[in-house]
């Protein structure tokens, strides 16, 4: 998979979802739900930037391509699980989705830990 392309697509999606939240959901969500939605957009953006940056590290030889792929899989999973569950929680109010969110957080933490290990070992 071309991880830089996935990162660019994830960033485009983050912009779209952020704009939808700011314009389409204004007045439809209470302050608590809007805060949840905004947190989802923030983490989506930050980790999509990681998807864009990590492949560059592999291209310049700072980490191996397999390590970059592992980090990118974890980042993408984190975006889908963490941000995805928060987007749905904010819009639907389905509270059990909050129990899924930490799994995405663990995926984010694992991604950055794997990257730190890979960079330390290079």
Topology:
Layout: H1 3-24, H2 31-59, H3 65-92, H4 101-121
Helix pairs in contact: 1-2, 2-3, 3-4
Concise synopsis of the structure shown:
Helices cover 82% and strands 0% of the residues. It has 122 residues and is mainly alpha-helical.
Task: Explain how this protein is built.
With 122 residues, the chain is an all-alpha fold. The chain has helices at residues 3-24, 31-59, 65-92, 101-121. Helix 1 (3-24) packs antiparallel against helix 2 and helix 3 (65-92) runs antiparallel to helix 4 (101-121). The two termini are 23 Å apart.
Mean pLDDT: 96
Report the radius of gyration as a whole number of Å.
Answer: 15 Å
**What structural category arises from helix and sheet content?**
mainly alpha
Strand content: under 5%
Silhouette:
elongated
Helical proportion, percent range: over 70%
Secondary-structure element string: HHHH
Spans of at least 5 consecutive residues with low confidence? none
Largest sheet geometry: none
Question: How many strands?
Answer: 0
Could you give the distance between the termini?
Answer: 23 Å
Count of DSSP-assigned helices: 4
Number of domains: 1
């Amino acid at each position: 998979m071309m991880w830089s392309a996935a990162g660019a697509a994830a960033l485009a999606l983050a912009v779209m979802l952020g704009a939808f939240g700011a314009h389409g959901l204004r007045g439809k969500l209470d302050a608590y739900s809007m805060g949840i939605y905004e947190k989802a957009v923030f983490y989506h953006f930050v980790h999509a930037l990681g998807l864009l940056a990590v492949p560059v590290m592999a291209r310049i030889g700072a980490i191996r391509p397999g390590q970059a792929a592992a980090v990118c899989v974890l980042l993408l999973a984190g975006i889908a699980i963490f941000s995805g569950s928060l987007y749905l929680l904010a819009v639907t109010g389905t509270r059990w989705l909050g129990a899924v969110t930490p799994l995405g957080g663990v995926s984010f933490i694992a991604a950055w830990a794997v990257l730190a290990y890979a960079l330390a070992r290079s």
